[in-house]
């Protein structure tokens, strides 16, 4: 099993910045991705950004140019720097660990709320 410890989040005004951090521990497969996803109420959870174990990054189109994800591969931690935040970024943010396998495996953090409001 993989455990994910999240920190960060909170309330910020439009145009402001926030930083989310996540640390993975446990039985970690060597081929993986670690990143952030978000969910609004009953809508489907969506990708924000992730970094693979090979160092490749993926961003949702809606956050490109505003958010930056970085990963410390030795420590298995990831940081999401969110700048120029918009009210549409308001959501519960979840750290996610994924191994393509086989067998495929996914673990989620408990989530942290990000609210962008004046």
Entry keywords:
4-stranded antiparallel β-sheet, 118 residues, 7-stranded mixed β-sheet, mainly beta
How would you explain this protein's 3D organization?
- The chain is mostly beta strands.
- 0% of the residues lie in helices and 56% in strands.
- A hairpin with a 4-residue loop joins strand 7 and strand 8.
Q: Note the gap between the termini.
A: 40 Å
Mean pLDDT: 96
Q: Which ranges are low-confidence, i.e. pLDDT below 50, for 5 or more consecutive residues? A: none
Number of separate strands: 11
Q: State the assembly state of the protein chains.
A: single chain
Bin the strand percentage.
over 45%
Total of DSSP H or I helical runs spanning 4+ residues? 0
Largest sheet: 7 strands, mixed
Structural class: mainly beta
Overall outline: globular
Percentage of helical residues? under 10%
The SSE order reads EEEEEEEEEEE
Radius of gyration: 14 Å
Compose a concise summary of this entry.
Helix content is 0%, strand content 56%. It is an all-beta fold and 118 residues long. It is globular, with a radius of gyration of 14 Å.
């Amino acid at each position: 099993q993989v455990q994910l410890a999240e920190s960060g989040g909170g309330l910020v005004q439009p145009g402001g910045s926030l930083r989310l951090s996540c640390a993975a521990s446990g039985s970690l497969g060597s081929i993986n991705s670690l990143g952030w996803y978000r969910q609004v109420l009953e809508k489907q959870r969506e990708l924000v950004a992730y970094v693979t174990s090979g160092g490749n990054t993926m961003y949702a189109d809606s956050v490109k140019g505003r958010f930056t994800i970085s990963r410390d591969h030795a420590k298995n931690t990831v940081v999401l720097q969110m700048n120029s935040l918009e009210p549409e970024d308001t959501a519960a943010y979840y750290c996610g660990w994924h191994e393509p396998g086989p067998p495929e495996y996914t673990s989620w953090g408990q989530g942290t709320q990000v609210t962008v409001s004046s």
